[in-house]
Amino acid sequence: MPQVADPEIAALVRAEVECRWPDGVSGIDELVRYGLVPFGKMMGPWLLIRSSLAVGGQIASVLPAAVAVECVQVGAMMHDDIIDGDPQRRSKRAAFARFGEPSAIVGGDGLFFHGFAALAECQEAGVPVDRVARALTVLSQTGLRIGNAAIQEIRMGRRICSSTEYLNMIRDKSGALLWMACGVGATLSGADDAALTALSRYSDLLGVAYQIRDDLMAYDGTRAGKPNVSDVRNGRPTLPVLLAHQRAPREEQQLIERLLADTDSPVAERYEAMTRLVRAHDGVRAAREMSHRYARLAAKALDGLPASEHRAALAELTVPGRLV
Amino acid sequence: MPQVADPEIAALVRAEVECRWPDGVSGIDELVRYGLVPFGKMMGPWLLIRSSLAVGGQIASVLPAAVAVECVQVGAMMHDDIIDGDPQRRSKRAAFARFGEPSAIVGGDGLFFHGFAALAECQEAGVPVDRVARALTVLSQTGLRIGNAAIQEIRMGRRICSSTEYLNMIRDKSGALLWMACGVGATLSGADDAALTALSRYSDLLGVAYQIRDDLMAYDGTRAGKPNVSDVRNGRPTLPVLLAHQRAPREEQQLIERLLADTDSPVAERYEAMTRLVRAHDGVRAAREMSHRYARLAAKALDGLPASEHRAALAELTVPGRLV
Question: How is domain A7-322 classified at the CATH fold level?
Answer without folding.
Answer: Farnesyl Diphosphate Synthase (1.10.600)
